[in-house]
Amino acid sequence: MTIPSTKPKKVFMSAQDQQFDVVIVGSGATGGWAAKQLTEAGLSVAVLEAGRKLDPEVDYTEHKRPFEMPFRGRRLGTEERQARQPVQSLCYQCDEYTNHLFIDDTEHPYTTPADRPFTWIRGRHVGGKSIMWARQTYRLSDYDMKAASRDGFGIDWPIDYATLAPYYDIAERFIGISGQAEGLPHLPDGQFLPPMALTCGEEILKKAIHDSFGRTLTIGRCAILTDDLNGRPKCHYCGPCSRGCRTGSYYSSVSSSLPAAEATGRLTLIPNAVASHVEVDDAGKCRSVYYIDRVTRTHREVYGKAVVLCASTLESTRIMLNSTSPRYPTGIANSSGVLGHYLMDHVMGGGASGILPVLKGVPDTRGNRPNGVYIPRFRNLEERHPDFLRGYGYQGSANVVKWGHAINIPGFGAEFKQQIRDTRPWSISIGGFGEHLPRYENFCELDKIHVDAWGIPVLHISAAYGDNEKAMINDMADAAEEMLRAAGAEDIEVEREVSAPGLAIHEVGTARMGADPETSVLNSYEQAHDVSNLFVMDGSGYPSSSCQNPTITFMALATRACEYLVEEFRASRI
Amino acid sequence: MAPYGIDRREALKTLTTAGVSAATLPLWVTTLNEVAQAHSHEGYTQSAASGSVFTQAQHNSVAVLSELIIPETDTAGAGRALVVNYIDTILMDAPAPARNRFLGGLKWVDERCEDLFGATFAAASPKQQVAILTVLSSSENDTPSDRIGVEFFQAMKSLTVTGYYTSRVGMLQELDDNGAVMFTDKPGCDHPEHKA
């Protein structure tokens, strides 16, 4: 094991080098939320954030129109920017409006085997990816958490839905989720604000797949307010949420949880603090988090009675792998040897799109609804699919194409221009997100050679999709086509090309929870089996990926873990 | 390039092309369109900007061409939208072979106009300009000697479309999209049988 080059030669002390009850690494969806839960319970908390604080007036660009941007908002803009973000630019959200919200790949490298590419999308600033996320929020059920018991693959979650449900309630009530209750056992309803409306094309698809296949289509459940909540105004439908939201109408830690934590007077937010590793005391417990000031490059240490990693899946594990000591030679909390293993994402690449001739001439009614529709999983619920385990759900939308059809209209001139107006098609498209089975051979480890701009060893990530995911993509494509046909769509194009892992940006696992300390890193409270004052409250703890967008489950798990951590403080066990 | 439909994130955004197959275009035209995806820019001056790809004469020709493709009607056309400046920026960032094919096509059109009308494209009469574009835009035109001009028109047309519909006048006037459209109901939907 490489000895990290960042081990202290000299630590520069400062006012920040003080003792907190809890040090949280990461200020995103779960870091901000954990800070709120813990400070409101009376604990003093330091939050380390690797990036800067954003200035909404400058950094949030949701109200910019294409013609206000030098490059009309398409893709990244300049070639120079493109060269610095070859990975981040693969993200659908990273464009001229938002590229400053994504990392500079040249400063934050990672390595992969040549034949096992992984796309790692990251944001380093206060709020993390909760600024740019797609805001879709779906609960898991025991079909997900107890999947191993149902089909024999992998391990069960060390917690069941009934135990987690009240914690979903707490998180949802605070951050605000709009959605429609459907009464599905495999996609439990939550605490919903009023649902957004379906477009006419989506109504058609909903009816068709219900009548033909008994399947459900529901408006996206999303962390966007459709009613004022906790002092935050409801959405004003400007549309492009991923560029930031000055009114705070969707959940980001910046819009809601961090301000709540700040209001307690017990939060110390330390931006530009690039965490390197956790230092331990003689008893093997966490003593501090060691970090490097992003701007001054000075090395610092911040002390906590407990450490909570919310740096994101892979980053939290990187910190743990980099926390080597005589007691923990392969990284902290790694007596099982599975730290870094069982990396998962959601497999994408199966879907279909087409046009709905029946709606010809019906005007666009979609407006700037910042949300799509969801078709919940229907495979491997009560019946067993012959080709693959687990399931997938679709996300999509139907709306009017305003001018993308123009190039197929012949001719030029006034008649051409009028035809573009008169022949606007209703397009409909759905794409699947499928469960990625947990496999030991999908893993990350510290790269033996490369370090990042702050001298911290980078990750070597080795992951791929297997036969199960490939079979699932085929079924995803076939089922998408049959549903669009049932809705009367024409000119259907079917997609069945598996994308590289990482691109769904639902990466989970690498420090999995489990009942057995021999085969897992964390218990159901996201507490390390090996180190009682170390918690990991982001996606790293997922034992299996499910197929639902994961953030609300991260938050529900963190809610429960924080409650437990507070109890441990009260009982003086920490 | 991941097409529409397979990416839920794409599906959550405004879809402009889902369900609409792209026309078959020559590779170099496709290249220019990809550059247009990556870079587009609405200039704010009527004349060729300094450091631009176009000479003043080329600038004038492209401006006339763009207005012929999307003319002013009850809304502004591609000329007022300054699509020529947008195309200039695209060409500036484009790989040299694609840029040269475009400029070569423009030259071809001028030369053909000289042969036919004794004047460059910009100097030809509006009737003559429409006449040559009608020949070049015809989907049935597979005359080998017209190939350069036909491909040039395809490039010109696709860049004009993108430039126009992302311009200020294109969005505010033609698309009536002021960027603040509240979505509450389905005012255009008269299909009660489609409601669940």
Structure description:
The complex is a heterodimer of chains A (574) and B (196). With 574 residues, chain A is of the alpha/beta class. Chain A has a domain at 182-244 and 347-434 and 465-500. Chain A contains twelve helices and 17 strands. In chain A, the strands form four sheets. In chain A, strands 1, 2, 6, 7, 8, 9 and 17 form a seven-stranded mixed beta sheet that branches. A six-stranded antiparallel beta sheet of chain A has the order 5-11-12-13-10-16. In chain A, helix 1 (29-40) runs parallel beside helix 12. Chain A is globular and about 80 Å long. Chain A starts with 18 loop residues before the first strand and ends with a helix. Mean pLDDT of chain A is 94; it is low at 1-10. Chain B is mainly alpha-helical. Chain B has one domain (25-177). Chain B is built from eight helices and no strands. In chain B, helix 4 (83-93) crosses helix 7 (147-165) and helix 5 (96-117) packs across helix 7. The longest helix of chain B is centred in the middle third of the chain and has 22 residues, at 96-117. The interface between A and B is large, with 90 and 69 residues.
